Amino acid sequence: MQMSKRISSFQASPIRRLVPYARAAEKKGIHVIHLNIGQPDIRTPEEAIKAVHGYNEPYIAYGLSEGEPELREGLCEYYKKYNATVAPDEIMITTGGSEALQFVFMTLCDPYDEVIIPEPFYTNVSTFAATAMVNLVPVTSRIDDAFVLPSIEEFEARISKKTMAILLCSPNNPTGHVYTRQELSDLLQLCKKYDIFLIVDEVYREFCYDGAKFTSVLTFEEYADRIICIDSFSKRFSMCGARIGAIVSHNKEVLASAMKLAQARLCPPAIEQVAAVAALKAPEEYIEAVREEYERRRNMLVSGIQEIPGCKVSRPKGAFYFVVDFPIDDAEKFSVFMLRDFSWEGNTVMFAPAEDFYVTKHLGKTQARIAYVLNEDELRKAVKCLEEGLKAYRRKCCNQQGFSGYNQ
Amino acid sequence: MQMSKRISSFQASPIRRLVPYARAAEKKGIHVIHLNIGQPDIRTPEEAIKAVHGYNEPYIAYGLSEGEPELREGLCEYYKKYNATVAPDEIMITTGGSEALQFVFMTLCDPYDEVIIPEPFYTNVSTFAATAMVNLVPVTSRIDDAFVLPSIEEFEARISKKTMAILLCSPNNPTGHVYTRQELSDLLQLCKKYDIFLIVDEVYREFCYDGAKFTSVLTFEEYADRIICIDSFSKRFSMCGARIGAIVSHNKEVLASAMKLAQARLCPPAIEQVAAVAALKAPEEYIEAVREEYERRRNMLVSGIQEIPGCKVSRPKGAFYFVVDFPIDDAEKFSVFMLRDFSWEGNTVMFAPAEDFYVTKHLGKTQARIAYVLNEDELRKAVKCLEEGLKAYRRKCCNQQGFSGYNQ
Q1: How far is CA A44 from the centre of its chain?
Q2: Which residues contact B203 (CB under 8 A, 6 or more apart)?
Q3: Closest CA to A188 of A155, A235, A213, A211
Q4: A305-309, A353-357, B12-16, B89-93: which range is least confident on average?
Q5: pTM of the model
Q6: Domains of chain A, earliest start first
Q7: Percent share of chain A, pLDDT over 70
Q8: In angstroms, rounded to a whole number, what is the distance separating the alpha carbons of residues B232 and B244?
């Protein structure tokens, strides 16, 4: 008995596969600072927790496959803040943004169809594409260009008969780029020309910095039929474990088709939907305070890492990640070293090696994705760990393999 | 822009696709008695609801992809009641039994591989198989044989190089058959001979009637490596909306492989896992009272429907469903008629047409799956509705099409 060839070919999540090393470090009494995962330490809105405490149904019943009406109505209200007009039946609640992406791949694509995506991108998209047997066709965005949208010509050059959609994430995980109205407009024109969809994952919508304004793809009404927005409560309300996401589209056929998948899995989690309804009622100040907090953290961590000799960082404009290029041979080896062989005053750092955030081979090998979701004290310690860790790693490499690194 | 061919070929759930008719009936003020879906009206254990009320984390954080340790440990204790010895790392918590089945298909099978399954079977398995591009190969179990396991020769005749597993559900949804130790043992011998897996969905494990004893597949230790058990909290604790299920296997490679899918979707819902941990602590009397309640309901509804002229029922031994063969031309048309054109004293009945519970064409066309999860008052009304509805439907068919039905 063997496992399937496909499962054997799937990658383990680079965000999570080093967890055993982290656990081993923790067992040794080392404090591991988790920059690998976007798990904020910010409080969930108290409205959400209170709603959970007020849950008072006699039994936890199946809900509607498309999600509870109250939640979809609440989202419609919420989208108005972003100048988007959405009706409740244009929303399907999913079990996290993860399920939303899986449903959309299955709905739009047959096996071997293609979706074009700027790389680096959120690595789990690879697994969702692979389960749907969809080929991701990358267009490389570059750290030296601050990860802006590559030229439309580059996208156009990759469109084939098998292309069903272009997939963006804005604000971007992992690069922090916030796509401009112009960039979105250019892409939509291209999508119209080739009659394909634009899918935009906007789960970090709230988190734009330096006064930048966010443009939701849902505001492009003339292209309404070819737009699919992926959403999630995880980051916005610091409720990642709730697994409440959504597919939003004015295209009724997309939702009616995805409904077949939704009905098969019955419904999204019930109590978490109650929490989500309440979270939407959190005051505007909650979100604004969270945004400000992330901006402070970004400022602190980006400056700190930029000052480490040899580290290259593109200052992110949104979300709560950035990509760092380390002066080393291999970010995954460095990550293992940090967890297994290194500590600084009892601390070490875990980050996500970025190679699997690229489809193109050999790109991103020296890069990592860093999440700045922890408080500033932790981030300060993290900078020091990275600085000392890099020195130690490069010393070790020099000794063992004569590796000289990037001596700058 | 068109939807994918595959999504267009997927069936809409026969359990849920008639919901628009039910809603329209309800809008007209008609009380719809839902025999279509296994949504019990029995209380969730108060331990679970109290645990939800006691949820007191500052933020709803991501959990482990394989589920919380406390929940997996709790399940190990629970399985002891069924004489099964399971370790926490032999359990993966999933978002419902639905996700467990999807993970197992992806893990064991490549596209066009085959899984053998007795039909009729829980219809959503078809969609999970289709998303994984797995072909379900049916072996027909028959109402006249009380839906016992078809002969081992019939299974053996269907094994090919592409067969990766046999999939059972025991106690069975939709037939109510409880597979005996001998039936399981015979199948496991066959699986060993051809080096394939046996997957058993045991989510109705508690619900066996007439003093019948349940045999868990987890007790067959000599075949441990080729056994995968699917589990869920939904039915046992009347918490269908919680979406907490599990994959249980002594085969470490199965769990390690499924882990790639689990990590990509991050984690199962957090608060619902807290509820599940507490539900496992409900006293034995809770489950026993629920079991007795279902047994009473079964007795009432089965007897009632057996007395309707022309209705054939195989008395179920477990779970909370049975298959009824109606004296009509088409159970789906009859279901639409019941919801759209009929009421009796302000009531009508919704049930799940059974044709989609079969792979073999034309089987089950006159059959429906009936769930007996409602209280006896509702069930009594349901019997009367079905009796009167059948008369009215057959009169209408005779008038319109000269259809004579099965005049018995």
Answers
A1: 19
A2: B97, B169, B173, B230, B231, B232, B234, B235, B236, B245
A3: A155
A4: B12-16
A5: 0.95
A6: 5-43+285-399 (3.90.1150.10), 46-279 (3.40.640.10)
A7: 98
A8: 6
Interface subset of A 151-190, CB within 8 angstroms of B: 164
Query: In this predicted model, what pLDDT tens digit does every residue of A220-249 receive, in sequence order?
Result: 999 999 999 999 999 999 999 999 999 999
Instruction: Judge whether residue B37 has pLDDT over 90.
Output: no
Burial label, A211 (beta-carbon count in 10 A; 0-12, 13-18, 19+): exposed
Q: Is the pLDDT of residue A401 over 60?
A: no
In this complex, the residue of B11, B96, B260 whose CB is nearest that of residue A7 is B260
Q: Are B363 and B353 in contact (CB under 8 A)?
A: no
Beta carbons within 8 Å of B254's beta carbon, 6+ residues apart: A3, B104, B107, B108, B228, B247
d(CA A363, CA A351): 17
- Round the average pLDDT of chain B to a whole number and report it: 95
> Quick check: B265 contacting A, CB < 8 Å?
yes
Please state, in angstroms and rounded to a whole number, the distance separating the CA atoms of residues A370 and A313: 10
3-state secondary structure of A60: coil
Q: Which residues pair with B367 in a beta bridge?
A: B325
- Cβ pair B192, B223 in contact under 8 A: yes
Q: How much of chain B exceeds pLDDT 70, in percent?
A: 98
Q: Enumerate the residues of chain B whose CB falls inside 8 A of the CB of residue A17.
A: 263
Q: CA gyration radius for chain B? A: 21
- pLDDT tier for residue A200 given thresholds of 50, 70 and 90: very high
Q: Are A334 and A393 in contact (CB under 8 A)?
A: yes
Answer left, alpha or beta for residue B236, where phi above 0 means left and psi between -120 and 50 means alpha: alpha
SS3 A283: coil
Q: Which tokens hold the place of B283?
A: 């006293």
Residue of A nearest to B267 (CA): A241
Transcribe B279-340 into DSSP letters.
HTTS-HHHHHHHHHHHHHHHHHHHHHHHTSTT-EEPPPSBTTEEEEE-SSS-HHHHHHHHHH
Please indicate if any CB of chain B lies within 8 Å of the CB of A9: no
What is the predicted pLDDT for the residue at A40? 85
In which residue are the tokens 């009892």 written? A346
In sequence order, the β-bridge partners of residue B369 are B323, B352
Q: How far is residue A220 CA from its own chain's centroid?
A: 23
Q: Which residues are within 8 A (CB) of A80 and not within 5 positions of it... i.e. 6 or more apart?
A: none
Token pair for B147: 């839906």
Distance of residue A124 Cα from the nearest chain B Cα, in angstroms = 5
Using DSSP's 3-state secondary structure scheme, residue A176 falls into: coil
Please list the residues that pair with A371 across neighbouring strands. Answer: A321
Q: Which helix (H) or strand (E) holds B35?
A: none
Separation in Å, CA of A343 to nearest CA in chain B: 24
Helix or strand (DSSP H, E) at B99: helix B96-108
Could you give the CA distance from residue A403 to residue B36 in angstroms, rounded to a whole number?
A: 67
